[in-house]
Specification:
The protein is an alpha/beta fold. Helices cover about 50% and strands about 10% of the residues. It has 5 domains: about 30-205, Arc Repressor Mutant, subunit A (Orthogonal Bundle), CATH 1.10.10; about 215-275, no CATH class; about 285-445, P-loop containing nucleotide triphosphate hydrolases (Rossmann fold); about 450-525; about 535-620, Arc Repressor Mutant, subunit A (Orthogonal Bundle). Keywords: DNA-binding, Transcription, Transcription regulation, Two-component regulatory system. It comes from Streptomyces poriferorum.
Length: about 625
């Protein structure tokens, strides 16, 4: 006979289970709790579960509800060393007793089949099943771009926990200890998902108030630590947030020999930048939510002036700043935004459209962050187009500057761009975003040699640089004149003050050591390149792996064709694909004759040196170095 169950909901006050259930026909509702001491009740009255070994049988069945558990597994759990000759008969007695208690209506709740015994339960009857169901609902709401509803489902799931699962029985059987470990792992993942969703809602206090207990159990869990640092920062407990980061960093280094990962480093950078809303000078009422200007920002005066002029035109199209990873797009955009803040009294705000690991943030999360930062009180509906309409309506007539950083593609900008009017958008992207037809475009090149030397001198000291000027020239060349790499290398030299610049230049010029050497604190060139690699389309990765076999970063079209195994036209298309995604600069030859005979030899393409080194690692396989 098939069991039928109908859930009767009785309002939002219920933290997990409905207050009433319509169970089997003619039977009162059953409830079994295992997220704590094992207990069972029917219609609110406790059920007698019998002696220890009988309760152990029930506990083992509950580790895999609705799934067969063999007689052998049950025997091993009850008598792990030397089962008696009567073990099988004793098990049958225990099961028979449990069937009378749990299934008095003889509806087949506890059955024996080919694979063993099966205990049939629904999510309304077992707290662990309800926990999983609520967590799945939370995951679905998060995918749908509804962090508020996701946080509510996750919180209801977490509230079902009373204590460790099977806390009165777990020590009695290995199978129960393994099940408890799995449940704790699942609870941790749900807590982390809740914390991140709760932070997305703009209410960090519940996370800040509860995260310490979870951290005490899982001190090396970086996802959890990132939520802890972010929550403490956002509620104003900045000193505690710094201490939390430092504690995790030291434990990772001491126990695992690792540096903090991308998510935790991102939370730490936000903490150092103290990115919180503040009023701009001059009595303006809008929010200013920008990272701080870099004190040692160097060069870029021509590009800065061009961007400022383009953003000064009211009602103009988006202003697009492009270039490869580590070229300094964000730093320049932030400086321009600070410079122009007085022109936008209704708010200046920056947000990233991609996470540190290269994954694209949900549009709903980005839009909600922008709305909160600017004080938009309108409720944004879950539908993308409806939300975009509400957002643009709110922006209409307001003088706001949006800095939309690290945009993966034009589609991600769709619901964010302002309507025609005084609001302006400054967009940074590694891709050239060819579909963004109306944008003002500025391509950011590497620093000049003089600018790169000037920046390195500001980091390590001009006296030290002047003492080994030739070695300094080699260092800046080995970094590809990229600001990110220069800062990473300069910071490392600032720590290793005993190291001659020539020795460090030797390391950087060795292909197998360069990326390892360009890492200091939260600045890691390899990690940034890995994030860029993760976002590349598949064909672009294939092209880069093939180009990694070339001996030099500069190459001709015929050389690329030989590496790719393609004809001239197909090779051009493959290289143009790399140009579109911002990995490769356009060729130096002004004439579009690269596919014609000897003229093709005069066209020179050039991959950034560090990108080439990373591509060689990828071509060599996991764990390989050049």
């Amino acid at each position: 006979m098939t069991d039928t169950f109908t859930e009767i909901r009785t309002g939002e006050a219920d933290p997990g289970f409905p207050r009433e259930h319509a169970g089997e026909a003619g039977a009162a509702p059953l409830r079994i709790d295992l997220l704590g001491p094992l207990r069972a009740s029917r219609d609110g009255l406790p059920l007698p579960l019998g002696p220890l070994k009988q309760r152990l049988v029930l506990a083992v069945l509950l580790t895999r509800p609705n799934t067969p558990v063999s007689m052998e597994e049950l025997t091993d759990a009850l008598w792990p060393d030397d089962p008696p000759r009567t073990a099988r008969k004793n098990l049958q007695v225990y099961v028979s007793n449990l069937r009378r208690v749990l299934d008095p209506g003889d509806l087949g709740r506890l059955r024996h089949g080919p694979g063993g015994y099966v205990l049939h339960l629904t999510a309304d009857e077992c707290d662990s099943l309800r926990f999983d169901e609520l967590a799945r609902h939370g995951d679905a709401e998060l995918r749908a771009g509804a962090p508020n509803r996701a946080a509510l489902h996750y919180r209801r799931a977490l509230d079902l926990w009373r204590h460790a699962p099977f806390s009165d029985l777990a020590a009695r059987a290995d199978v129960l200890r393994a099940a408890v470990d799995r449940q704790h792992t699942r609870r941790l993942a749900v807590y982390e998902a809740w914390a991140e969703a709760q932070l997305e809602t703009g209410e960090p206090a519940p996370v800040a108030d509860t995260v310490d207990e979870m951290v005490s159990r899982h001190p090396l869990r970086e996802r959890l630590r990132a939520a802890q640092v972010t929550a403490l920062h956002r509620v104003g407990r900045r000193t505690e947030a710094l201490a939390a980061y430092d504690d995790c960093r030291q434990q990772l280094s001491r126990e695992l020999g690792l540096e903090p990962g991308a998510a935790l480093q991102s939370a730490y950078r936000c903490l150092l930048e103290n990115a919180a809303p503040s009023r701009p000078r001059g009595g303006h009422t809008g929010s200013r939510l920008l990272p701080p200007d870099l004190a040692d920002f160097t060069g870029r005066s021509r590009e800065r002036d061009a961007l400022s002029a383009q953003l000064g035109c009211e009602g103009g199209p988006p202003v697009l700043l492009t270039g490869p990873a580590g070229i300094g797009k964000t730093a320049l955009a932030v400086q321009v935004a600070h410079r122009l803040a007085a022109r936008y009294p209704d708010g200046v705000v920056a947000t990233r459209l991609c996470a540190e690991d290269g994954s694209i943030r949900p549009w709903s999360s980005v839009l909600a962050e922008l709305a909160r930062s600017l004080g938009c009180a309108e409720r944004l509906p879950p539908d993308r187009e409806e939300a975009a309409t509400v957002w643009r309506s709110w922006l209409s007539g307001r003088r706001v500057l949006l800095l939309l950083d690290d945009v993966p593609d034009a589609a991600a900008l769709g619901p964010l761009l302002p309507p025609s009017g005084p609001t302006a958008a400054l967009v940074t992207s590694r891709s050239r975003l060819p579909c963004l037809e109306s944008a003002h475009r500025t391509e950011l090149p590497p620093l000049s040699a003089d600018e790169a030397l000037h920046l390195l001198g500001r980091i390590i000291g001009r006296t030290r640089l002047a003492a080994e000027y030739g070695a300094a020239e080699r260092i800046v060349a080995a970094t590809g004149f990229l600001p990110l790499a220069l800062r990473a290398g300069g910071n490392r030299l600032s720590v290793l003050r005993h190291m001659p610049l020539g020795q460090y230049a030797d390391r950087l010029e060795h292909p197998s050591e360069a990326l390892d050497e360009l890492s200091s604190g939260g600045l890691g060139v390899r990690a940034r390149l890995a994030g860029a690699w993760a976002r590349l389309p598949g064909p672009a990765r294939v092209t880069l792996r093939a180009l990694a076999t070339l001996p030099d970063p500069a190459f001709s079209l015929p050389a690329a064709a030989r590496a790719l195994g393609l004809d001239g036209r197909e090779t051009q298309r493959a290289l143009e694909g790399l140009i579109d995604v911002g990995v490769l600069a356009p060729p130096s030859c002004p004439e579009v004759t690269a596919h014609r005979g000897a003229a093709s030899e005069s066209v020179r393409y050039e991959l950034p040196w560090l990108t080439l080194l990373f591509a060689r690692e990828q071509a060599a396989g996991p764990g390989a170095r050049c």
